[in-house]
Amino acid sequence: MKGGLFLEMLGAEQPHSLQRSIMGDTELDECFTLALEAHDPYGWAAPFWKVIGNDERQFNAPGVRVPMLSLSRVLPMNARNWPYLGYHSSADNPELISIRRLEDSRELVLRMIDTIDTNATPVNRFKGEVFCSRYGLHIDWWENRDANQAFFDVLMLIDGRRSIAQIAKQCGVPFESARAVVEALRAHGLVDVPARSETAAPVQRSAVAPAVVWSSGMADAPPSTMMEAR
Q1: Is the entire prediction scored with pTM above 0.90?
Q2: Using CB atoms within 10 A of its CB, is residue 136 exposed (0-12), middle (13-18) or buried (19+)?
């Protein structure tokens, strides 16, 4: 077992909250954080056991140390009504759950899976700066300065030592943007993108449903919003 994502309280009204693994710097931590930032502008992430504590603790514990992250919709720990108003009381009932929010969380989880599935470490086949206009890759600085800067920021970090997620994080751009630059360069034979090895894939797609290791708090959700737990 390489890692996982614990799901709970995803039908509540708060923005998404991602709790990182106890290591905090694994590939899962990097990819899932980038996916959250791109999907939910109000979402937030915090270190291990600084959001809420549930079954993910057992996987992160000494002697196990499996990077198990947690995705939920709760208030910050310093909030008066943490984790949310009515938690573990008679007011904690199905009326608090929104199918729309469950579906939105499903899309976020799918985005997380796609990010980890497509993350790789691109290897440059070029030396020095690329003559981008020769390949039709140049972004005019006068027309879009931010895009031009982001393109070259990503390009400069492709050296076979950083993953796409690490490049995106360092450049402060969405994962999809960094991946698009890598794909454009690969299309012109400027970079190689080795296939992910079996040991580098902590999450794999299922033929039936998107795979999420251990889910909770969704037992009453309709089949269309359920995640497979295994």
Answers
A1: no
A2: exposed
